[in-house]
Design a protein that fits this description.
Length: 130
């Protein structure tokens, strides 16, 4: 006989009670940063091509890249580069068969987030000072 309470019970993990594991979040973020780095690379190539084209076009491209929005985009690209690099190092570490325990993998995920923010701040400070 069919279960009469079936309509009153929530289906498998509902969004209000399910919490994605940190390792899943950082894995998805690693893929997103890879795509974002492609976009940032295209912006740099556009800037270099403008520099090779003409002084007027270079001035336009340089104004876009060095504007407030351009500075934010380039700063986010620096963060994406550090995040993606640290994510790659984590995967190399995992390829050795180490660090695959849940607690260690969670700590590595938080380490990648904190490390990427710290290295981004350090990089931007070095770029501003020099």
């Amino acid at each position: 006989m069919a279960d009469v309470n079936r309509g009153n019970r929530p289906l498998s993990p509902h969004l209000t009670i399910y919490r994605m594991p940190m390792t899943a979040i950082t894995s998805i973020l690693n893929r997103i940063t890879g795509v974002a780095l492609l976009g940032g690379g295209l912006l740099v190539v556009w800037w270099l091509l403008a520099a090779a084209s003409s002084p007027g076009y270079y001035a336009f491209a340089d104004a876009v890249i060095t504007s407030f929005i351009g500075d934010i985009v380039m700063s986010l690209c620096v963060w994406a580069l550090w995040y993606h690099a640290l994510g790659g190092l984590r995967h190399l570490y995992w390829d050795t068969g180490e660090g695959l325990e849940i607690e260690t993998a969670e700590k590595l995920s938080y380490g990648i987030l904190g490390g990427s923010v710290g290295l981004t701040v350090l990089t931007l400070l070095v770029l501003i000072v020099f």
